[in-house]
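Good morning,

Attaching, inline, the backbone tokens for the sequence recovery test we're adding to the shared suite. The designed sequence is right after.
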């Protein structure tokens, strides 16, 4: 009997081994990094360089030298290295171990946010400025700036010397997040954005460093025409303050002397033009981030960097000149996708003229953030902070694509929850317990209520007569929605209900002249995704879903059959041997 049990055990192991090895039959397609990114029509993405670790900012040499080894752009890494990329795309370490900062936990933990924040160049002097958070000798977190000296105009692969502005920041404690960030050189001035380090009660106080835009000369000294300047003491915060009341002005850009900021709120962000000496009112309350805003994002997209394409530029075509390009960190797990958002801002009217849209959108499933964005001589460059599925962390370049061959576009959103958020559905409707923030403007959109209400309409003879009457109206949108009405009337059951929902999302007045629902600008494809989501039956439990998946897999059945056959052969052979041995003993 022991032999029989051994044989059965061997047969079972053979079966399990073959099933476990069935994945060898499946050919896993090679990862295409393009599948992580969607870009606007008429553009494509090119991988420019790779091999970074947590890249945090990019800065281009305005007029790079002509030689292959002349610097083209600089890349900072969060943990304290500065890389320089040459014209031939070689990567050199310009500086490393710039500061001491060891997070308790590495990214994506929030404990890992601190480190090198921004970089900006001054070609006239050959200066490279970097901003960062570090631990001082007592272990306290401080902001700082280091200025590296290189060759004026074309810069260099290594610095000749450096100066730290440590004394300026030494009396003011910072935090793991909302620390010092972007910087920009304007003539002989250096502008720097500094977050409130989770101390909102200090953001509006000119005697405190946090929550401010700082302005200084290129040697780190305060400028006498700053609005709160009292003396030349480099340790007094008020001597440097240009504007106050920010939560995290990490995205900052100066255009023709005008300062613009993408300010991170908690659940809300704002885009704002910043005036000299003014207070932008962040006090820790969510509604305070709305004040003085030219545009507000709800929910938050988490701005990281801000760039501007001048009207005279030809890089991205005439449709994009004079626009701001805002890098956003987003949050994949919360359905707020990282990417680059375009902002159309009228400089004369001082207002945003259109709803900002995604120029670049992350479409992968893993966590990701877009933190480095910069215009180069031949396109718009960006650096995601995390490695992709192939383990590569790269700098990419967006360039025009006359053939329009790139396979993924930002409008191709596949997550219904993302479409619902971005189109504002939760402002009027409650969906699966979320939303309804705009009052009782729209009914809850549960599967049961939708089916019951829509089915009642479709079964009503007066409603069908109304649809027929609308077909005779020679005005828009009723002319262009005739086919939509016909599609509903020709369908049956849940197919008719699904088509009704699609019609309603695409054009709310398709069956109702007096509809108060706004046109959300959703495409039929987006509307179909949302309709399927609203009509979906409750999800199976995890274990049931796994079983269903296995049962539906042809490969699993193939492996099971092969394993079963092998198990039967092995077991049968073992039993035959056992019987033979038993007869020989007799």
């Amino acid at each position: 009997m022991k032999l029989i049990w051994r044989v059965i055990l061997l047969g079972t192991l053979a079966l399990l081994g073959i099933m476990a090895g069935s994945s060898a039959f499946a050919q896993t397609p090679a990862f295409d990094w393009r599948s992580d990114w969607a870009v606007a029509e008429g553009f494509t993405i090119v991988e420019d360089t790779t091999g970074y670790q947590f890249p945090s900012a990019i800065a281009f040499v305005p007029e790079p030298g002509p030689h292959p080894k002349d610097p083209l752009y600089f890349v900072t890494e969060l943990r304290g290295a500065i890389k320089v990329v040459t014209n031939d795309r070689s990567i050199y370490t310009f500086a490393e171990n710039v500061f001491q900062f060891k997070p308790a936990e590495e990214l994506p933990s929030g404990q890992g946010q601190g480190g090198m924040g921004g970089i900006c160049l001054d070609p006239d002097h050959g200066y490279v400025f970097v901003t960062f958070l570090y631990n001082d000798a007592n272990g306290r977190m401080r902001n700082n700036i280091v200025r590296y000296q290189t060759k004026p105009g074309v810069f260099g692969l290594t610095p000749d010397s450096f100066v730290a502005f440590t004394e300026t920041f030494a009396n003011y404690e910072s935090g793991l997040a909302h620390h010092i960030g972007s910087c920009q050189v304007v003539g002989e001035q250096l502008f720097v954005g500094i977050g409130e380090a989770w101390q909102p009660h200090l953001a509006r106080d000119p005697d405190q460093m946090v929550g401010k835009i700082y302005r200084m000369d290129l040697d780190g000294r305060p400028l006498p025409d700053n609005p709160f300047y009292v003396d030349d003491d480099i340790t007094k915060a008020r001597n440097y303050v240009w504007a106050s009341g920010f939560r995290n002005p990490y995205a900052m850009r100066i255009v023709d002397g005008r300062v613009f900021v993408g300010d991170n709120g908690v659940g809300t962000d704002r885009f704002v033009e910043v005036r000299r000496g003014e207070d932008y009112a962040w006090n820790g309350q969510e509604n305070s981030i709305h004040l003085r805003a030219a545009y507000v994002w709800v929910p938050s997209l988490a701005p990281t960097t801000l760039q501007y394409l001048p009207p005279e530029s030809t890089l991205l075509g005439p449709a994009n000149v004079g626009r701001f390009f805002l890098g956003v960190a987003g949050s994949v797990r919360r359905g707020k996708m990282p990417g680059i958002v375009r902002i159309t801002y009228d400089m004369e009217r001082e207002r945003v003229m259109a709803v900002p849209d995604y120029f670049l959108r992350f479409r992968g499933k893993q966590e990701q953030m877009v933190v480095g964005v910069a215009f180069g001589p031949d396109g718009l460059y960006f650096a995601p902070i995390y490695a992709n599925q192939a383990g590569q962390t790269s700098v990419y370049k967006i360039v025009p694509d006359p053939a329009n061959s790139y396979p993924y576009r930002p409008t191709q959103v596949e997550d219904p929850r993302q479409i619902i958020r971005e189109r504002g559905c939760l402002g009027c409707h409650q969906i699966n317990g979320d939303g309804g923030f705009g009052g009782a403007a729209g009914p809850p959109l549960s599967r049961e209520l939708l089916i019951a209400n829509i089915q009642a309409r479709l079964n009503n003879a007066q409603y069908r007569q109304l649809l027929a009457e609308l077909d005779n109206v020679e005005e828009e949108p009723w002319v262009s929605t005739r086919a939509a009405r016909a599609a509903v009337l020709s369908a049956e059951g849940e197919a008719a209900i699904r088509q009704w929902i699609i019609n309603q999302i695409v054009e709310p007045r398709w069956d109702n002249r007096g509809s108060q629902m706004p046109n959300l600008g959703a495409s039929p494809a987006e509307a179909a995704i949302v309709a399927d989501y609203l009509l979906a039956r409750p999800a199976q439990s995890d274990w049931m879903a796994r079983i269903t998946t296995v049962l539906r897999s042809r490969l699993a059945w193939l492996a099971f059959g092969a394993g079963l056959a092998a198990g039967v052969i092995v077991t049968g052979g073992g039993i035959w041997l056992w019987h033979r041995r038993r007869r020989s003993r007799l």
